[in-house]
Write a structure and sequence with these properties.
The protein is mainly alpha-helical.
Length: about 450
């Protein structure tokens, strides 16, 4: 694939779909505009994947079909296959703080290894700050509007973190930026974008003018999109929208509860540490009970460390994945809205062409055919990205939930082992006391 390859059907490898046809394609056929039929049944989704089926599916049932083990072996095989054929590897690491008279900011090292001919060298190492990643994502959205662009972490604030220069914040952001860049580099179309090439290889990025221009273009597009009224979104894309709404609600609920659990764990950890200190100080004034009291203090300290590790895992590993997919949902909804805008534009041009043909028998304008091709390309690219997103989601959530289970098991095993050791200590103490009394 080359950089100049046309976006759409050729890039995604999907066949054209036939949801929308030109009534003008047959001169003798009755002229009509495609509309939705009330009696048609909607196509359902299995785990959010668009399929053709005659049975209706509700939004709640779509989310309940999230089965992490379904098609997992196929996903793993695809992952291994893509790894063997991959020719672009990127890594984000080594954050550094820069302090100047004007501003303070963090840069990250971006390392690249590739065998592609589009790059002049096989390896690159550049430093980029957050706004550079933001520039790349905006450029990808601008140049690849039919594709799903992975999300970036929030620019200023992450929940539970106030200082954006803290070690925890920087570490979490670095992992998110690394995941963003890896997803872009693994994409069969986005990875060939010239803006990505510049981001990975250029020593300096000239972004300011491009960002200002893009802002104006974005506002114009939003204004134009508001004037269109879509006649009928294809059922499979309706099902996608319903799935995203339900998935967003579920993730939002999990995120809020997890935040509350994390806060309660922090408060409990503070009390638990004070609780252990009381036993430790008590042991200093009770010589006969010194060993049991110190044993209780040691058990509490072990439980504190285990709980601290569990809370750290939730804040640095569990919550960021939830936030990433909440942002991913917004990105997918944005692509769906662009697809609807493209279809609405096509329907508007088609309806105008039909009216002109009825009046003066003029031939079908070329713009109508171009709009139809654009809709078909948009649909094919969106379907391909949707399937890729579902595959990544299954792998990410399997890893996330498995890791959460392992961390909880490890936490309770440490606590159990600590208290069991205390029981042994108390039993030994009781045996010593009996022996002492006998003597």
């Amino acid at each position: 694939m080359s950089v100049g390859a046309p976006r759409g059907l050729a890039s995604s490898g999907q066949k054209p779909i036939a949801e929308i046809l030109h009534p003008l394609s047959a001169a003798e056929e009755p002229l009509s505009v495609p509309v939705s039929v009330g009696g048609d049944k909607e196509a359902g989704l299995t785990n959010g994947t668009p399929v053709e089926t005659s049975s209706p599916a509700s939004a709640s049932s779509l989310f309940n079909r999230l089965q992490l083990d379904d098609d997992l072996e196929a996903d793993v095989r695809d992952l291994y296959a893509s790894t063997e054929t991959r020719d672009l590897f990127v890594t984000v690491d080594d954050p550094k703080k820069h302090v100047s008279t004007m501003e303070t900011y963090i840069t990250y090292r971006v390392s690249t290894k590739t065998s592609r001919i589009e790059f002049d060298l096989p390896e690159y190492c550049v430093r980029r700050r957050y706004q550079d990643f933001d520039w790349l994502r905006i450029k990808l959205e601008e140049s690849q509007p039919t594709h799903l662009i992975p999300p970036l972490p929030e620019k200023f604030v992450m929940k539970g973190v106030v200082d954006r220069f803290s070690e925890e914040f920087v570490e979490t952001r670095m992992k998110a930026l690394d995941k963003f860049l890896k997803r872009v580099a693994d994409h069969p179309v986005l990875s060939f974008n010239p803006h990505l090439n510049a981001f990975l290889s250029a020593k300096d990025l000239n972004k300011r003018q491009g960002l200002a221009l893009l802002t104006k273009v974005g506002e114009s597009v939003k204004h134009v999109a508001g004037g269109y009224k879509l006649r009928a979104r294809p059922p499979e894309f309706c099902a996608m929208g319903e799935y995203l709404d339900t998935f967003s609600q579920k993730l939002g609920t999990i995120d809020r509860i997890a935040q509350r659990i994390l806060k309660e764990q922090s408060e409990y950890l503070t009390e638990l540490r004070e609780y252990g200190t009381v036993y430790s100080s008590w042991a200093g004034s009770e010589e006969e009970l010194r060993r049991p009291l110190e044993g209780v203090s040691g058990c509490v300290a072990t439980c504190c460390r285990a709980l601290d590790d569990q809370s750290e895992n939730m804040s640095q590993d569990f919550l960021p994945v939830l936030r990433e997919y909440i942002l991913y949902i917004e990105s997918m909804k944005n692509v769906l809205r662009k697809r609807d805008q493209t279809q609405a534009e096509y329907e508007g041009r088609l309806e105008a062409a039909i009216l002109r043909k009825q009046e003066d028998r003029t031939p079908m304008p070329v713009e109508v055919e171009k709009c139809q091709d654009k809709v078909e390309c948009f649909n094919a690219d969106l379907k391909a990205d949707w399937e890729r997103w579902q595959s990544n989601k299954r792998q990410d959530f399997k890893q996330l939930l498995t890791g959460m289970a392992d961390k909880n098991i490890n936490h309770y095993e440490k606590c159990q082992a600590a208290w069991e050791s205390l029981v042994t200590l108390l039993q030994d103490k009781q045996t010593e006391d009996k022996t002492s009394e006998t003597n």
